[in-house]
Each structure stands twice: as structure tokens, then as C-alpha cells.
Amino acid sequence: MSSLALKVHDVCVNYGEVKALEGASLELQAGRICGLVGMNGSGKSTLFKSIMGLVKPDRGTVAIHGYSPTQARKKGIIGYVPQSEDVDWDFPISVRDVVMMGRYGHMGPLRRPKAADRQAVDDAMERTELTEFASRQIGQLSGGQKKRAFVARGIAQNATMLLLDEPFAGVDKRSEATMTRLLRELAASGATILVSTHDLHALPKLADEAVLLMRKVLAHGTPESVLTPANLALAFGLDVLDRESAS
Ligand SMILES: Nc1ncnc2c1ncn2[C@@H]1O[C@H](COP(=O)(O)OP(=O)(O)OP(=O)(O)O)[C@@H](O)[C@H]1O
Question: What is the rounded CA–CA span in Å between residue 89 and residue 215?
Fold first, then answer.
């Protein structure tokens, strides 16, 4: 039986004069991987931030398993892999400590890790192939490893909803394959995954469904049904797949 993991209803977000989202609505069932595509500035990051509760919509509602973003974050059911630009990579924190942040919701107010927390962190780092980098400062990782550190944080957290903002940007093919496999495993164990990407060719392999965004949801369905030339022309203004294969 399917269950509704995410419901975004009629969300509008303005940054001053800029209308970043204008009536975006989206529903995702649990255990699905959904690829979010749209041109630069189409509102993908703003949608993630609205779901995380980092941006407050001027209108509309967001529910994650029936909870508001604030409740969902408190309950630790939502994990976020931000765009690289949104992270201070100079912050003096080790990979292990970043992953341990995923356990904060499971600890008391003093945030003293127990054996179960350490075990969850070890397991998450192993699954993301980061064990050997545990004591490295977070900024000393490659692009793909940095992304995986944030996924590991979500795994340690036991997040049932994972939001990934361009996890494949600046990442080599091997890291991309590792990440795709990981996301598939997480979805198979029941997690719901919303992932933004500019790689339209890789989308059918990665995702069960796709969403085309241009301040609102233009199309949502299987990748094949969404990535049609007509839809892409609407969202990007030209024949993107043809242009990419020509270059
Ligand atoms: N903090 C902000 N203040 C003002 N305008 C903003 C802010 N953040 C985003 N915007 C604007 O809102 C619009 C949507 O931005 P957003 O970052 O959500 O798009 P995006 O689809 O994630 O883009 P990209 O693919 O380039 O990452 C853009 O026009 C952007 O310039």
C-alpha cells in the first residue's frame, strides 16, 4: 500500500521582488526517488528550503508524513544534502562529527553520544564508503565525498525523507554511480528521495519519477513522460537533449 510522504500545496515564495515559487504543488509517495529538474533560477533550491522550513512560504503549506517542516526536523525524519555553495567548508569539523550531527535528535540536551550513536555513525560512514576519511576536516574531501558525508548524516539520522540539492554537480562518474546505488538502496528500504539534477540523460536510471519545475510544477510523472521535447522546450526554452547530444 502506498503512503503519502510529501505534500507541497500551492507554495509561493518571494524574495523581495523576485517570485521564486508561484503556486508549486507536489505529492510524493513513500519509497520513491523523484528527480527535480528545471533551469537555473527555476526555484529548485527554494523548494528544498521550503520543505526543510529554512524558507517560510508567503502562501501554501508543506507536510512531511503529515508533519510541518519544523516538526519533521525536530523528529529527525528529514535529511538535507545542501548545494555545495550553501556550506562553509572551512568550518573546523571532522567528517565523523558531521555524520554525528545526524544523531543529535536521538541524544539528550548535552549531546553526549552513546554506543548506539557511535555505531549508527560507523555504519553510515561504511555504507557511504567514508570510513577511511572519518577524522578529516570536512573541507578536505573531494566533491563526491563531501556529498556522501551529508548523505551519511541523513542515514545516521534514520531520515525517512531525503532532499538532495544537486548531489551530482562536480562529481566524477564513479562517485555518481556510488551515490545512485546508495539512493536506490535507501529508497528500497522505504526512504523517499527528492533529488535535483541538471543531468537529464541520467535521470531515467536514477529516478522513478521526475518533476519539471518553473516556479511551479509544470509536469510530474515517469521520467519518460516528463522529459518530452515539448515539456523541455517549455521549461528550458529549447531542445535541451538535442543540444546536449550535439555538444
Ligand atoms: N536569498 C535570496 N534573495 C533573493 N533572491 C533569491 C535568493 N535565493 C534565490 N533567489 C532567487 O530566486 C530564484 C530561484 O532561485 P533558486 O536558487 O531556488 O533556483 P534554482 O532552481 O535552485 O537555481 P540553480 O539551478 O541555479 O541552483 C532565482 O531568481 C534566484 O535569483
Answer: 29
